[in-house]
Write a structure and sequence with these properties.
By secondary structure, this protein is mostly helical. The chain is built from 5 helices and no strands. The longest helix has 29 residues. The protein is flat.
Length: about 130
């Protein structure tokens, strides 16, 4: 199969699944090391990262292909702004209504989920590392 054909077939579900896997691993480590309160903080931190990512994927991938590039770029920018706004709103909601019992684990989980998002292009590439 040609490389471009394989890239077109890449599934957008890989990013949220990778973020969920990082949440499960961190949640288990938090549960074993600091108890259920820390695991709850990890789940909150991952949720604050995962929900905006799902919004970004939904909004940014509405128009696919090169048929209407102007609309695709507009959707991408609207998705990025929406993701930022949703992230800020979720941080406010979490810290006002449901304060995490362990903020350290909350921020570690958030940064880990964001790191998975940032590393996704590297994780999905087809060529070996030089």
């Amino acid at each position: 199969m040609h490389v471009s054909a394989r890239r077109r077939g890449l599934s957008w579900q890989r990013l949220p699944l990778a973020q969920l896997m990082s949440a499960l691993v961190l949640g288990l480590l938090a549960l074993l090391s600091a108890g259920p309160g820390a695991m709850y903080s990890v789940l909150l931190g991952t949720g604050v990262a995962l929900l905006p990512t799902l919004y970004f994927l939904w909004r940014g991938l509405q128009v696919r292909g090169g048929r209407r590039p102007r609309i695709s770029v507009a959707n991408f920018y609207q998705a990025a702004v929406g993701k930022f706004g949703l992230t800020v709103a979720l941080f406010v909601v979490v810290f006002v209504s449901v304060p995490p019992s362990n903020p350290t684990f909350f921020f570690i989980a958030y940064v880990a989920a964001q790191s998975v998002h940032w590393l996704t292009p590297w994780l999905l590439r087809d060529r070996p590392t030089p």
